[in-house]
Design goal:
heterodimer, A: alpha+beta, Porin, 10 strands, B: mainly beta, four-stranded mixed β-sheet, 46% strand, globular
Chain lengths: 300, 198
């Protein structure tokens, strides 16, 4: 019963993610994201001696956040290990009962499209995601990045249109794996090969004199990057979900060119620094190819 | 709110703030012209100050464009004007030497930074001293290429030094230490002066 109540509580939080309770759970998810060593132990409920002091303290923090849930009569029986540890233990049990294959979803991002419509650059992208036990969510994201930017001061014009691909995996952080809502953290590897044009006013030598046209069209480059993703999705109607994600992107490498550096990498964004923030707002459709029907899943 | 909750919020907020700060702004170089850095040494190979005043001029050629047409007044411009040619004027181009002073009366100098030409293959620098009557001339050969880091910072001309030679009145010898001239400000050329250093 307690498990059932907790899952309802989490669902409510996601559906009202702008409230304080939702924010608190978001913080819990981000602590999970930034503490990968704990994550690597697959949330083993029993604390091992080998766990570092940091992991131990983080587990205590997570316990404390879980403890802040409104108290009920059942809470009085909570063990010394804390509610978060119990929560993790129950989640592991639930996960074992789910069939491995939980179907595909396809999604489209409207955030990148909005960026393009109201700014100089953006993306058009879609994703195909596989659900394994509704816990591990491998994903492939394909898109097309567009940038048509002219700097106000230097008058340098940068233009690129090229496809990109990201592959990665998400982990569903919610305890109740049977429900349709998800809160996830994950990683992506992104890759794009593109040609860009950079043109500008004639380059005038201010001291020795002389000028030449500034035109570097058709410069080829290849870029690689990594993304850390944190997001959620909620069910709106039968097979339709909506969700958002926040992404921290780390630029790994780009093929070097003597004359210029790519200002915008399709799928990554602008390259002013080695990392950048981005986000997505997704419209998600379930594809029930071969997915086990809900009635067949026996739940405790 | 308990101490544990405050701790959790601090961890998360700290992570977010540090990540945001790491990707905030683009830092453009202050100087819009890339310069070649010359460092002064004595004949023993030790960095030293030049015990003399130093002026550096660059030799460059300027052009004048003369436009003539029968029955009209002659006109001269420093830049070509296509409209005159279109209206039947005859264009004549003459060149003349137009030196520019880049370093003026440097006293006890230990180094100097000199802008390089964007499009010439060889830059010619004339060094005039206070105590030596005859000047020295440095001939600096280089390749140049345009570089844009981001459109916000504009475009720069970087240079790759290929050769340097000089006359030997005040200068003992000269050498290239770093052939890449960009806006990082590294030492590019060492000038070893004869007995005029402190």
């Amino acid at each position: 019963m307690k498990v059932q109540k907790t899952s309802e509580y989490i669902s409510t939080i996601i559906q009202s993610s702008c409230t304080m309770q939702g924010l608190r759970f978001m913080l819990l998810g981000m602590v999970c994201l930034f503490c990968l060593p704990l994550h690597a132990q697959e949330f083993t409920p029993v604390r091992q001696d080998s766990v570092t002091i940091l992991n131990d303290s983080v587990l205590q923090v997570l316990d404390s956040i879980a403890d802040s849930k409104p108290a009920s009569t059942a809470d009085t029986t909570a063990s010394k290990e804390g509610k978060f540890s119990k929560w993790v233990s129950d989640a592991e049990e639930d996960k074992k009962k789910l069939p491995l294959f939980q179907g595909f979803t396809i999604s489209a991002d409207v955030f990148g499209l909005g960026l393009y419509l109201f700014g100089d650059y953006g993306t058009i992208e879609a994703a195909l995601r596989l659900s394994l036990k509704n816990t591990y969510l491998p994903i492939v994201e394909l898109g097309y990045g567009i940038c048509d930017h002219t700097d106000f001061n230097s008058k340098i014009h940068y233009k690129v249109n090229a496809p990109f691909i990201r592959i990665g995996i998400d982990y569903n952080l919610l305890k109740d794996k049977f429900q349709d809502n998800r809160m996830f953290a994950g990683l992506r590897y992104g890759f794009s090969t593109y040609k860009y044009d950079m043109t500008g006013p004639d380059l005038v030598d201010p001291i020795y004199g002389g000028k030449q046209p500034f035109d570097f069209s058709g410069t080829t480059s290849t870029s690689h990057w990594l993304e850390i993703v944190l997001g959620c999705q909620v069910k709106v109607v039968k097979n339709f979900h909506m969700g958002w994600s926040v992404r921290l992107k780390y630029h790994l490498s780009s093929s070097k060119n003597e004359n210029s550096k790519a200002y915008y990498i399709p799928g990554y964004g602008t390259t002013g620094n080695s990392n950048t923030w981005s986000g997505s707002y997704n419209l998600i459709f379930d594809l029930n190819w071969g997915k086990p029907k809900k009635q067949t899943i026996i739940k405790k | 709110m308990t101490n544990k909750n405050i701790c959790a919020i601090c961890i998360v907020c700290g992570s977010i703030v540090s990540a945001i700060c790491g990707c905030s702004t683009v830092t453009c170089p202050m100087d819009t012209v890339v310069k070649c850095n010359y460092i002064f040494y004595n004949t023993n190979g030790q960095a030293a100050a030049l015990a003399d005043t130093l002026n550096v001029n660059i030799k460059k050629t300027a052009y004048l464009y003369h436009y003539q047409k029968a029955g009209y007044k002659d006109t001269t411009f420093t830049q070509p004007v296509k409209a005159f040619v279109d209206n039947g004027y005859t264009e004549t181009v003459t060149s003349y030497r137009k030196d520019t002073t880049l370093v003026n009366k440097l006293v006890n100098g230990t180094k100097m930074s000199i802008a390089m030409s964007y499009y010439n293959k060889v830059d010619t620098l004339v060094l005039r001293y206070g105590l030596i009557y005859l000047p020295d001339t440095i001939f600096l050969s280089h390749d140049s290429y345009t570089h844009v880091e981001t459109p916000e910072c504009g475009s720069y001309r970087f240079h790759r030094l290929t050769d340097v030679r000089c006359t030997n009145r005040g200068i003992d010898h000269i050498e290239i230490t770093n052939p890449t001239v960009n806006y990082e400000g590294a030492e590019n050329i060492r000038i070893y002066f004869n007995n005029y250093t402190e």
